[in-house]
């Protein structure tokens, strides 16, 4: 039994990742090897360029500054507080320290010997990922790969929330294929392919005479290992199969199987009698099986939506979609997939609503039957980023009509717009407090008026105009005639091309929202009002990124890419110098979207205001990491659009 | 005079005692800096405060090298006791389930553990008095190790070496009071290991405070 001193150390460590992922035995092993040292303010722990020590560090109490030597003197990169882990380069790469660590308060530090931890890294993949993802402080933040961070967070979350696989109506009823297609190692590649085709399956398991698994060959292997290598089809499968199998027991719980597939990036998981490769194959689980087991798959939901005009049913399906969303978010499903699925669902609701509206009102206006119109989604839905049913922003544009039809057209299309907005409200989308909706006569206009609106905003970039542009410039045609929207888009880019200084105004606006850096110990929170002490993730982190992405794509004359992270991806292609930064910004945006949506789902609100106190250490770190691309981009914008010389 | 059969106060030295005494002869050079000093910070839990009639129930200790607490060296030992029973349990809630050492085993392990390290404790004189009672039957009458009392050190840092004890509010120098003042969370009080750990934390901070006052080597610390 651990004595009280080791126990005391372990009790502290276990509150903080990565120690929180350790088993009690490992935790005790680590705690029993800790060394504790006390430092006074101003003392140095290590300096940039010094060789790595055989320890990494956990701050028990006090505070430490990590700084980088720059030509103008040291620049503070990070501020560590209680529970922060730093100096892990020693653990990972055994490289010299890249930062200076200087105590800014009297501090007590736990020294963790690297050798103890190396053993743990070997068998605990969560801990390994934690470090690989750079959650431990003291890495130059913007250089780290945020996608690793996402991956890590998914896995770290996965096991604690095993029950969160709520999307599976009954996890135990997952259908595992028990008729596993098998062959011997000396079977030719050609024969194996024939067997797979006959059985209509995507994999074949290679077994020995006892039916013990030796390897697996999948559809993908045919492409990557056989065709691309121009290998003769007479070769035996044993030469091309994947050996080093990961196998599981048939009786293992679904979540264990599923997580094992996710962790190891397996498309097929082989199940054996006793869970080792020294027992007969009894089943195989493919990601396709998993997909089929999902009651709430996007395809099912969209199909259901397309077949109903019943408002209550639409509402109910949208609720179910939210359940699916939650599952996707918690399991770190790729954000572009999640966003497109949710956008698709929202779009289907809008198009159903449009049909409903036309059906209801068109008979009263037979003269307008041939007049085209288009329902425009604006703001986040326009950018295909609306995961939660936050405020709707939308508008309606219709074809220019002759003088005699003007009155009836404006009346009719306002009715159509209002009807759609009502359906959306009924489906759970809150109305826009600023009345930017297709139920507001101001935003239901013929094409010519819309063109005037945009020209006006571009030529006279008042504060209100800039604000409007941030909502309206991201419009996207959802229902009706897309030609109208295209024509409007062309008009905008023509105008922007002519009035280049408009971009400087946009740039100024994008620069005005400072990145929420500058706080160290806490988050920059709202000072007053209903949400005081909460962090406004939308205004402080997401909005700057959307503004920056819009501005930069506009400046490149890029059209029809609305999505913020797709905009960053495109920018990365266009500006290879900054491709790293743009990709990081895109990732950061995805992470923010995910965080906000999860926050919203959890608290049944729009997820905009986050209580930093309630964030875990890991989430805080992840959130902090998303901020660094913002200030980097703002600096680029500042120089590129000469904001220093630009009239204030 | 160990051959004198009537002198029962001087028992024969056991081998482990001889070994210990042999190793603890070396003196620590006065100019040795704190980083090179090795300390054993210890505490005992006893049945009471009278060295004549009370005895040790448990012993906890941890070592400090290079001014850092070596958690790996932490020990907590329980002693078999003739007085074990309700009384002790009520006072300190000691559960009789832990590994309990015979006095002979304890003495051997204890002496091997402290070796020639500097012994540190809060009110360490009392602990050493109690421990001396245990090792006496095995032929050891005094501990040759140098000692640092964290209470005295704290007082010295505040008032200097030649302070008049009668004018000093000693209640400000209890382990609790000092931990409070130096920002050390007091948990696990009244377990020997817990108190030893607190005292070790206190020593780290006192050593830093001493260095600031120019007390930075063994001869200066040992005044």
Taking pLDDT < 50 over at least 5 consecutive residues as the criterion, the unreliable ranges of chain A are 135-173, 518-522
Question: What is the residue-mean pLDDT of chain B, rounded to a whole number?
Answer: 85
Please count the beta strands of chain A (DSSP E, at least 2 residues each): 20
E-strand count of chain B: 6
Q: What is the helix fraction of residues of chain B, given as a range?
A: 25-40%
At the fold tier of CATH, the topology name of the largest domain in chain A is Beta Polymerase, domain 2
SSE pattern of chain B, N- to C-terminal: HEEEHEHEHEHHHH
| CATH topology type of chain B | Nucleotidyltransferase, domain 5
How far from one another are the termini of chain B?
34 Å
Number of helices of chain A: 23
Outline the low-pLDDT stretches of chain B.
84-95
Largest interface: A-B, 21 and 27 residues
Annotated CATH architecture of the largest domain in chain A: 2-Layer Sandwich
């Amino acid at each position: 039994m651990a004595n009280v001193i080791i126990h005391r150390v372990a009790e502290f460590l276990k509150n903080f990742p990565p120690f929180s992922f350790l088993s009690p035995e490992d935790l005790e092993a680590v705690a029993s090897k800790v060394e504790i040292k006390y430092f006074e303010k101003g003392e140095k722990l290590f300096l940039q360029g010094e060789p790595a020590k055989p320890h990494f560090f956990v701050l028990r109490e006090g505070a430490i500054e990590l700084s980088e030597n720059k030509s103008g003197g040291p620049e503070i990169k990070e501020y560590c507080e209680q529970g922060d882990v730093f100096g892990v380069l020693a653990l990972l790469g055994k490289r010299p320290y890249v930062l200076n660590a200087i105590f800014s308060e009297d501090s007590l530090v736990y020294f963790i010997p690297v050798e103890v931890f190396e053993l743990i890294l070997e068998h605990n993949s969560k801990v390994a990922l934690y470090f690989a993802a750079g959650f431990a402080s003291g890495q130059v933040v913007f250089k780290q790969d945020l996608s690793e961070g996402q991956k890590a967070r998914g896995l770290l979350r996965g096991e604690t929330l095993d029950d969160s696989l709520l999307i599976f109506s009954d996890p135990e009823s997952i259908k595992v294929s028990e008729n596993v297609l098998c062959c011997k190692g000396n079977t030719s590649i050609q024969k194996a392919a024939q067997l797979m085709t006959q059985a209509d399956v995507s994999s074949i398991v290679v077994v020995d005479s006892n039916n013990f698994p030796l390897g697996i060959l999948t559809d993908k292997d045919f492409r990557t290992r056989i065709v691309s290598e121009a290998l003769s089809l007479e070769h035996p499968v044993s030469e091309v199969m994947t050996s080093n199998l990961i196998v599981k027991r048939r009786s293992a719980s679904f979540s264990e199987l599923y997580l094992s597939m996710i962790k190891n990036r397996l498309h097929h998981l082989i199940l054996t009698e006793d869970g080792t490769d020294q027992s007969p194959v009894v089943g195989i689980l493919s990601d396709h099986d998993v997909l089929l087991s999902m009651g709430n798959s996007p395809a099912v939901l969209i199909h259901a939506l397309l077949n109903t005009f019943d408002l209550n049913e639409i509402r109910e399906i949208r609720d179910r979609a939210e359940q699916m969303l939650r599952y996707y978010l918690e399991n770190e499903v790729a954000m572009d997939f999640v966003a497109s699925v949710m956008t698709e669902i929202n779009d289907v609701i809008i198009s159903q609503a449009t049909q409903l509206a036309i059906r209801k009102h068109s008979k009263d206006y037979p003269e307008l039957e041939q007049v085209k119109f288009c329902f425009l989604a604006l703001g986040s839905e326009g950018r295909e980023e609306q995961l939660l049913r936050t405020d709707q922003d939308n508008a309606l544009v219709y074809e220019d009509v002759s003088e005699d039809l003007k009155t009836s057209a404006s009346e009719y299309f306002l009715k159509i717009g209002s009807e759609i907005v009502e359906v959306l409200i009924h489906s759970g989308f809150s109305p826009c407090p600023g009345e930017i909706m297709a139920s507001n006569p101001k935003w239901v206009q013929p094409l010519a008026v819309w063109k005037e609106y945009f020209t006006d905003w571009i030529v006279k970039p008042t504060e209100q105009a800039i604000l409007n542009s941030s909502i309206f410039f991201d419009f996207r045609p959802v229902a009706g005639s897309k030609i109208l929207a295209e024509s409007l888009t062309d008009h905008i880019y023509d105008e922007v091309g002519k009035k280049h200084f408009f971009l400087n105004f946009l740039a100024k606006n994008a620069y005005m929202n400072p990145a929420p850096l500058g706080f160290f110990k806490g988050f920059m929170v709202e000072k007053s009002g209903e949400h005081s002490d909460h962090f406004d993730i939308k205004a402080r982190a997401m909005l700057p990124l959307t503004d920056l992405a819009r501005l930069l794509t506009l400046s490149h004359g890029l059209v029809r890419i609305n999505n913020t992270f797709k905009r960053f991806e495109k920018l990365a292609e266009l500006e290879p110098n900054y491709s790293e930064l743009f990709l990081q910004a895109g990732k950061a945006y995805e992470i923010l979207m995910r965080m906000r949506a999860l926050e919203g789902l959890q608290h049944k609100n729009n997820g905009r205001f986050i209580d930093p106190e309630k964030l875990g250490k890991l989430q805080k770190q992840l959130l902090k990491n998303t901020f660094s691309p913002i200030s980097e981009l703002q600096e680029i914008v500042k120089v590129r659009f000469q904001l220093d010389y630009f009239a204030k | 005079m160990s051959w004198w059969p009537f002198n029962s106060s001087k028992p024969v030295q056991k081998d482990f005692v001889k070994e210990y005494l042999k190793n603890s002869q070396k003196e620590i050079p006065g100019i040795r800096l704190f980083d090179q000093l090795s300390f054993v910070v210890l505490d005992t839990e006893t049945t009471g405060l009278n060295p004549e009639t009370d005895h040790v129930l448990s012993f906890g200790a941890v070592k400090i090298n290079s001014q850092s607490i070596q958690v790996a060296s932490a020990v907590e030992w329980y002693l078999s006791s003739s007085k074990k029973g309700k009384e002790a349990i009520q006072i300190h809630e000691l559960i009789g389930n832990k590994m309990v050492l015979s006095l002979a085993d304890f003495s051997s392990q204890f002496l091997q553990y402290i070796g020639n390290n500097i012994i540190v404790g809060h009110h360490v004189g009392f602990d050493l008095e109690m421990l001396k009672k245990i090792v006496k039957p095995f032929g050891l009458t005094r501990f040759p190790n140098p000692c640092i009392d964290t209470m005295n050190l704290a007082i010295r840092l505040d008032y200097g070496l030649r302070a008049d004890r009668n004018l000093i509010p000693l209640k400000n120098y209890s382990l609790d009071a000092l931990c409070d003042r130096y920002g050390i969370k007091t948990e696990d009080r009244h377990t020997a290991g817990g108190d030893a750990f607190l005292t070790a934390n206190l020593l780290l901070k006192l050593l830093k405070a001493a260095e600031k006052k120019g007390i930075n080597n063994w001869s200066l610390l040992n005044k």
